[in-house]
Amino acid sequence: MEYRINENLCQAKLSIIRRITDLALADLGPKERAVLFSSGQPADEAIPTELVRKYTDRLLDAYGSEMLQYGGHKGYPPLFPEIRKFLNKDGVVARAEDDFVITYGSSEAIFAMGSAFIRPGDRVIVENPTYLNATNSFRYCGARLVPVQTDSDGVNLEALEEAMKKGASFFYTIPNFGNPSSITMSLRKRKAVYGLAVKYGIPILEDNPYGYLRFSGNEYIPPIKSFDEEGIVFYMGTFSKIVAPGMRCGFLCANREVIPKFVVFKGVSSSGNINWSQYVVTEFLREVDIDAHIARISGIYEKKARTMYDRMKECFDPAVEFTMPQGGMFIWAKLPEGAEATEFCLEAAQKLRIAVVPGNDFFIGSPRSCGYFRLNFSKPTQDDIAYGIEKLGSLTRKYCRG
Ligand code: PMP
Hints:
Layout: H1 7-11, H2 16-25, E1 35-36, H3 49-63, H4 79-88, E2 98-103, H5 105-117, E3 123-128, H6 132-140, E4 144-151, E5 154-155, H7 157-165, E6 170-173, H8 187-200, E7 204-207, E8 233-238, E9 250-255, H9 259-270, H10 275-287, H11 290-315, E10 330-334, H12 341-352, E11 354-355, E12 357-358, E13 372-376, H13 382-400
Parallel strand pairs: 1-11, 3-4, 3-6, 6-7, 7-8
Antiparallel strand pairs: 2-9, 4-5, 8-9, 10-13, 12-13
Helix pairs in contact: 2-12, 3-10, 4-10, 5-6, 5-9, 7-8, 11-13, 12-13
The structure holds 4'-deoxy-4'-aminopyridoxal-5'-phosphate (PMP).
């Protein structure tokens, strides 16, 4: 059979994260140990399993099979005011003229935006490097990606303005603890980015999965959505990182005029949302002291990030560059000029059984030569971090000394 697969899907790439993880686990012997620094999963101990069990039992008693019926295309109505309260608690994000659609995590909100705004060949401006599932999603929707370099305090404004002058369907940004770079955009830049978006009439897609996971540096920086007087910012949130990714519960917050279009999208893409997880998340937001919960999980991540960073300082060749993150889930490291992260990561996965992700695919155009690699500190245990980083350390010495 000759399958005529959509070219856009062919353009999108199989996730390097999956490939590296599979490689590290391939034919693993019973006595061999593998350590995965590859995914962006929350820590098991950060997932409120017991609460999910308690709420599920309670809600099933109260609602019975209704909880297992198809969910509405827009989402479960009692969840909306809870999300609004949650967002508005620390900086006004959702105004009266904003509304929500619930999605299967922010992944589906990203795809919904691509489906709604990208016509074949349209330009989509993205930070470089950026989240590769988002760029894959936009490619699949037919976008031509326009990469804009990032500085240590977020997107480069001159480059962004140049890109915006030529028009685009939207600008996609992760202002807090970017994936993969862990970079956070300064307040000054957020305001300037909003100003440019208004000036050139280009919507902003603001993706904020990690903003609540700040564990140091006490500056709270409000989201770009909080300046939005024009309905030009589309804000996405998710309960994947603060409750559980398996709930597949996230949302898109936008001007209420456009929400009906996304409701149609939801009907087409997935016949609505999962009632069970929306009921549980609603209960969670009503009952749990969310600040205390977030403080607890951020504490877990701070300890793990600290262990990873200290261990890297101790075991890595001094020529490898990296900084201690202030939040999020990743350390973004760089081998010295001339050393190839892809080779390094392949050798780490195959010979050491340690999975770390090479940086190439996070950059648009996937440069052949790239020294960056990404390490996740949230999912592995403290013991895995200590063991895995020590193993990687010896390999960094091989790659740094040529
Ligand atoms: N955006 C970014 C930047 C992410 O890192 C992730 C998950 N790794 C997502 C969106 C998607 O998260 P989810 O679909 O689980 O909400």
